[in-house]
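ok here's HNH endonuclease, seq below lol
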Amino acid sequence: MRHPLGPEPPEEQAIEDTIPICPICLRPIPPDAKQSLHHLTPKLKGGKGGPVVLVHQICHNEIHATLSEAELAREYNTPEALRAHPRLAKFIAWVRKRPPTFHSKTPKRLRKRK
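and the structure came out like this:
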């Protein structure tokens, strides 16, 4: 963003530089965006106290609508693995076209019960 009076003051630039990036969709997470922490290994599967990542709420909803806790613990416990999942990759391609503050409801269950 350009400052109307020339270069941005250092404090404004510092604020922009600290906006986190969602490790799922790779879009910025501005302070006014719905957001949450995602446990890379689900708490119920031994991830309590383990690593967490800040993600958009819509990305978090999609992760849990797509994958079971067991799948998350076993195969999809890194942002890279999550981004590589075919359904999540399709979602990411779709959501990347939306503004960083975009949010919509996610259908309750997208994954098939086994």
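fwiw The mean pLDDT is 86. kinda neat tbh
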